Predict the structure.
Amino acid sequence: MTSRPDRTPIVLLPGMDGTTILLEPLMAALPPELPPYAVSYPIDGDNGYEALLPRVLAAIDAHPRCHLLGWSFSGPLALRAARARPDVVRSVTLVATFVQAPQPLLRVLGPLLVTPVVGLVRTLRRLPIWLLRPPHDPLRRAKARVWQTVPARTLAARTRAIRGVDARADLTAVRTPLLYLRSSADRVVPDHNLAQVQQLRPDVEVATLPGDHFALFGAAATGARAIAEFVARRAP
């Protein structure tokens, strides 16, 4: 009789939208030994990193041990939480993310990171999805749900949080195994962000997902396989 594989949950922290919607394909693709536990963020109130950290820690504390994944906006949160819970978090997977503002221009655009401007940018970014993808396309349908759920004011607050984030100390302090999943055609979080992570943590493992910033959605099976192989090989 073969022994049953150890089932250690993986806590999933969402991207900029703060919902579990874009995490659904990954949750469905993860193997049984990595049951997912997805976290969502409130759409109102303070959406800065310090305000969201207790919510992340509460999710981690619901398990005696777990793995942790932070996608895009949530990468700094994943690092900070792993640093705060070294006896619980067994590995960290960073997906298309950063330790400082991913685009240098963000650091000088403070006065423009307000709801009307972010709302306009959001509308412009919808156009390729609406014009180039058919109505039944999974990403188009998922993004429509996100747009109906998350207002521009919430995205503006999270964008302002990204502008001032600095998770370099958290990255160097975390001693758990690290995996970075990059997107092959990511224009939102370009590869210089991965280079910065590698400079601070040369031991980080890297895997590539085909696609743009939302590759974890479109290539969820590939991402799940990379995470499962990494955890099986590296995590204690």
